[in-house]
Amino acid sequence: MVMCAYFSAPDDAAALGVLDQPGGPHGSAFDTLPLRGFDPVIVMVDLEALLTDCSYDEAAARPRSGKVLASPDAGTACVVSVSDTLQEALTTPPLTSLTDVVARWAGTDELRQLDVTPETALEALALLTELAGRARSAKHRLFCWWAL
After folding, report:
1. C-beta separation of 19 from 73 below 8 A
2. Are 60 and 45 within 8 A, CB to CB?
3. Buried b / exposed e across 20-48, counting CB within 10 Å, b at 16+?
């Protein structure tokens, strides 16, 4: 299964420092949230589309949405940016009911393949919201360490 760890950093250069840490972000260097299988390209774009009430294509086209910043020579891990729009949406009440967002997110093909229930999706959303709030307070951006 794909390993994903979301974390905050002040900028792209600092975020790339995670590639120097064996096993990805952890410890005191980064505020980190491991979310195994919740990939930053499809799953997070699905979430952004649901939270901002736009199409998947609109969310995917936003700056920083799923942009691979760098990957090591081995090609087994990379750092991917999370869009500022998703980060903001995570810290703002959704346009639609949270129950509806969570049910629709858990119903996406990607999360169904991972056997993610609405309860698990709600827990992941709550944890992402907390991480985004801390990042916002620190004037940081969100990123994902993604390893195959």
Report:
1. no
2. yes
3. eeeebbeeeebbbbebebbbbbbbbbbbb
Q: Are 2 and 39 in contact (CB under 8 A)?
A: yes
pLDDT digits 0-9 by tens, 34-60? 998 899 999 999 999 999 999 999 999
Record the pTM: 0.91
Please report, to the nearest 10 degrees, the dihedral formed by the alpha carbons of residues 36, 41, 42, 45 taken in order: 110
DSSP string, 73-86: TT-SEEEEE--HHH
Q: Which helix (H) or strand (E) holds 142?
A: strand 141-147
Cα distance between residue 75 and residue 36, in whole Å: 18
Distance, in Å, from the CA atom of 78 to the CA atom of 143, rounded to the nearest integer, reads: 10
